[in-house]
Write a structure and sequence with these properties.
The complex is a heterodimer of chains A (about 290) and B (about 260). Chain A has about 290 residues and is of the alpha/beta class. In chain A, about 30% of the residues lie in helices and about 20% in strands. Chain A has 8 helices and 12 strands. Helix content of chain B is about 25%, strand content about 20%. The chains are: A alpha/beta (about 290), B alpha/beta (about 260).
């Protein structure tokens, strides 16, 4: 699952000439069956439109990495896209369970799901190491817990102080996908508000896709804004509203009532499948 | 859980924040308690959410740790790598809140699975930020409803270390913080014995007797010689809480 980041990600050929590409084309070219894929966004800027395109294109056997699987991975898992989940907190925030992921873990529906779980700090350190070109990240974590026996962590001794710390392996997904507010016509990207591990996801991944709310002539730097230059991004696709039911600060509000209604939609296999058929499989692509 | 006991938990947690400057907050009762503290005795309490919002001053109770209102009102919004590496890990934050599906007599917590790990009867959300909050905050407060199913003699899985196997374990593990100083339940308050670190019942909420708390505990709960009765919510606390809860639609008021 861990791939070496051997070279600076190539800019996608179709991006040349400042063209922003179609989301469906980007998913077709960048996401392959069996890939390790990270769709990040910490509550904010979750790339739902990209996930729905992955579902429509019926990708299979993915390893999905994400701090908080959220509804986005509940949908991908329930639609048979994934064999394996790398995560640190899997719930519907403020509501309860992710019923499709639970069904996969507890009853192997629609297929078994192998879990690799971390703490937020541990998985974050894996992304940072991946983005930094280091083989492992180091932190104070996992000691004394049963998690240490159930995840990829190993003790490491500080060569300066002798202190024992936790080492976690770098995470280098095949594809990193995030949503941002804006791109310019060159493909430079800016996101602001809660920016989670999005920058690290782009930099750690062999290929990357950023979906955006809007393409502008020129990015105006925002307070707290994170700007990612075009040459580390493989493709940019326009997907206005593409973070719904999550949100894009400055463009949309979090749809809290949808997060609540998901509890009911996702609880039952048939209700879920019917919802996905109507709202994703048969929905017009962006 | 009755509305009155849920309210008592939040009020007691809010009072426990008095005199503290910084608090790492989760969603639900902890967030309500921390915002109640700001609305009553500690207007300058710094609320830190794991989404990277430092010094958030939400005007309505958030449904998720990433709600827009937290970022808009924060003194600083930092990335997730930064919140864990720079802010939590070095022990800068005074109080952290924790909750779980199971707790044992040394306040170790399970939020991972009920049943065997490889064939769980219930798959729970997992660790999130809890293990590092528990090790790095200078102290933690645990908020949990008390029942024999949740207060157990043996955890199905240890996600988060409270006092491990007892006195001295936190130091052996190299943890910087003091650990869980209070377990606040719907029935009363448990605190670690200063010598053994085992939880001891020290406070009963009004109208609750020792027998009820022991019956809701899956081990032989130790009881302090001088168990006190928690002061009921004051008029000011009740008013502030009502105002806060009015900011969130009823269906979203808890999570």
């Amino acid at each position: 699952m861990l791939v070496q980041l051997e070279q600076t990600p190539r800019r996608w050929p179709r991006m040349s000439g400042g063209q922003v590409v179609e989301l469906a084309d980007a998913i077709e070219d960048l996401v392959h069956d069996g890939d390790a894929v990270a769709l990040e966004g910490f509550t904010h800027l979750i790339p739902f439109a990209a996930a729905h395109e992955i579902i429509r294109q019926r990708r299979r056997h993915l390893t999905l990495a994400r701090l908080t699987p959220d509804l986005i991975y509940d949908q991908l898992v329930g639609m048979s896209c994934a064999d394996r989940l790398v995560f640190s907190w899997g719930g519907n925030p403020g509501i309860g369970s992710l019923h499709r992921i639970r069904d996969a873990v507890e009853r192997a529906w629609p297929q078994p799901l192998v879990l690799e779980e971390h703490t937020h700090a541990g998985l974050t350190a894996r992304y940072v190491a991946g983005a930094s070109g280091l083989p492992f990240g180091v932190l104070r974590a996992y000691d004394g817990t049963d998690l240490a026996q159930r995840t990829s962590v190993a003790p490491v001794i500080c060569p300066f102080t002798g202190e024992q710390l936790a080492a976690v392996p770098a995470l280098n997904p095949d594809v990193g996908i995030v949503h941002a507010q804006q791109a310019d016509r060159e493909g430079n990207v800016q996101m602001w508000g809660i920016t989670g591990v999005q920058k690290e996801t782009i930099l750690a991944s062999a290929r990357s896709l950023v979906t955006v709310e809007e393409v502008v002539d020129r990015l105006e730097p925002r307070p707290g804004g994170v700007i990612v230059p075009w040459w580390v991004i493989t493709a940019v696709a326009l997907a206005p509203g593409g973070s719904h039911p999550s949100y894009s600060a400055g463009y949309s509000e979090r749809d809290n009532s949808f997060y609540q209604s998901w509890d009911e939609i996702s609880r039952d296999r048939d209700t879920f499948s019917e919802w996905m058929r109507i709202h994703v499989l048969e929905a017009a692509t962006t | 859980m009755s509305g009155a006991s849920a309210e008592m938990m939040v009020v007691v947690a809010s009072r426990a924040l008095q005199g503290h400057r910084t608090c790492f907050v989760g969603i639900g009762a902890p967030s309500t308690a921390a915002n109640l503290a700001r609305a009553t005795h500690s207007p300058d309490l710094v609320l830190i959410y794991e989404s990277g919002c430092i010094g958030a001053k939400p005007t309505r109770l958030p449904l998720s740790i990433g709600d827009g209102g937290l970022a808009e009102t924060a003194d600083a919004v930092v990335s997730v790598p930064e919140i864990f590496a720079y802010w939590l890990q070095p022990g800068r934050i005074e109080v952290g809140f924790l909750g779980a599906a199971q707790i044992d007599r040394f306040a170790n917590l399970n939020s991972t699975v009920i049943g065997p790990y490889d064939a769980p009867t219930t798959r729970l959300p997992g660790a999130g930020g809890a293990p590092e909050i528990a090790s790095a905050c200078r102290q933690t407060l645990v908020l949990m409803r008390q029942s024999p199913r949740s207060f157990v003699s043996d955890l199905d899985f240890c996600t988060t270390v409270g006092f491990g196997g007892g006195a001295g374990d936190r130091a052996r593990l190299g943890f910087r913080g003091a650990g869980p100083m209070m377990v606040i339940t719907d029935l009363g308050v448990l605190e670690p014995d200063p010598d053994s670190c085992e939880l001891v019942l020290t406070h009963l909420h009004p109208g609750v007797d020792v027998g009820a708390v022991k019956a809701a505990t899956g081990w032989d709960l130790k009881v302090a010689d001088d168990v006190e009765v928690t002061a009921p919510p004051s008029a000011a606390e009740r008013q502030a809480l009502t105002r806060l809860e009015a900011t969130t639609p009823k269906s979203q008021a808890h999570g």
